[in-house]
Design a protein that fits this description.
Distance between the termini: 28 Å
Protein name: Phage protein
Structural class: mainly alpha
Number of domains: 2
Organism: Streptococcus merionis
Number of strands: 0
Radius of gyration: 21 Å
Largest sheet: none
């Protein structure tokens, strides 16, 4: 089931505009809908779930890029370690930052996975 399976075409257009806009008002203009309509969409649980899923997908893609860059950061650290002629401070600091961010992104991804599992359990529980 995709992110926008339950959205109307206008809601899908607004969702895409929202992902690339700084404000809801800007997104309504890009999507060609009334400001009130955009705010009404934002009140919809279905729309908010789709919006949250779209934002999560972007964060996961960014996380994957950071994790990929961490391999290059390790290569830079290794290069510095082996090259006695290069002042290692600036490059080492950059590499350390990339590694730190990759590890943080990994931790966030793990937390999101646990939250998703808890949400699934909650949804599967019968209501009283």
């Amino acid at each position: 089931m995709g992110t926008t399976d339950k959205l109307t075409p206008k809601q899908e257009k607004f969702l895409l505009a929202l992902m690339t806009s700084k404000t809801i008002d800007e997104a309504t203009q890009k999507a060609g809908i009334a400001r009130t309509t955009g705010y009404n969409y934002m009140k919809s649980l279905t729309f908010r779930r789709a919006y949250r899923k779209a934002r999560t997908d972007v964060v996961q893609q960014t996380t994957a890029l950071l994790q990929s860059a961490s391999v290059e950061a390790v290569e830079v650290l290794r290069e510095i370690m082996l090259d006695k002629s290069v002042s290692p401070y600036a490059r080492q600091q950059s590499a350390q930052t990339v590694l730190t961010m990759a590890y943080k992104a990994h931790e966030v991804e793990n937390v999101l996975e646990v939250v998703e599992e808890l949400e699934a359990r909650f949804e599967d529980e019968p209501s009283d």
